[in-house]
Amino acid sequence: MILPIRAYGDTVLRKKAHDITPDYPGLKELIDNMFETMYQAHGIGLAAPQIGLDIRLFVIDICPLAEDEDYVEIQDELKDFKKVFINAQIVEYSGEPWKFNEGCLSIPDIREDVSRPETIVIEYYDENFVKHTETFSDIRARVIQHEYDHIEGVLFTDKLSALKKKLIKGKLHKITTGEVGVDYKMRFPK
C-alpha cells in the first residue's frame, strides 16, 4: 500500500524516533509498504517519520545508482544495496567530509549541497531482527546518514548555512502550505 509522505513542517519530522521490538505490530507489512511508497515516489530511501511514525526504521534501495556513470567504480557494491535499518545507531564517523547535492521526498523541489563524513560505522537490526555492525563509505554512507538524520529529527536543510536557509525560506513555506506539485501522495501540515 502506498502511504502519504509527510511534508516539511509536519511535527513528526522533528521528533527523535524511538526503538521498536521484533513484535512491533505489522512490521513486515509496514516495511513492504515503505518500499512500495519509496519506489512510487522515485526515492532511494525512506524513513518511518516520513510516513508519520516516530520509530527508528528506514529503508534504502540504491540499486538504481549502479547504472549511473558517476558510480562505475563501485557498481558491484551498489547493484544489490537494498536494506532495512531498525533501531540504527551510528557509532563512528570518519574520513574527509564531502559535499553532495541532496534532496528529500518530504522537501520536494529543493536540492542543496550538504557536507557529510565519508565513512560511517552503524549498528542496526535488519528486517529479521538480526543485529549487524557494518562500515559504509561513499554514496552508501551518504544515503544512510540522510535517512538516519530523519530518525534523529534532523532534516538536510538543517545542515545548510544561514544564508542558504534564508534563500529557501519561501520555498519551504510553500511546501508547508501544500503549494508544491508532486507526482506522489503527500500529507501537508495542518
Q: Briefly, what is this?
A:
The protein is of the alpha+beta class and 190 residues long. It has four helices and nine strands, in the order E-H-E-E-H-E-E-E-E-E-H-H-E.
Helix and strand content put the structural class at: alpha+beta
Number of strands: 9
The CATH topology corresponds to Peptide Deformylase
| C-alpha geometry | globular
Tell me the number of helical segments per DSSP (H or I, 4 or more residues long).
Answer: 4
Radius of gyration: 16 Å
The count of domains is: 1
Average pLDDT number: 95
Describe the fold and architecture:
It is built from four helices and nine strands; from the N terminus they run βαββαβββββααβ. With 190 residues, the chain is α+β, with helices and mostly antiparallel strands. It has one domain: Peptide Deformylase (Alpha-Beta Complex), CATH 3.90.45. The two termini are 23 Å apart.
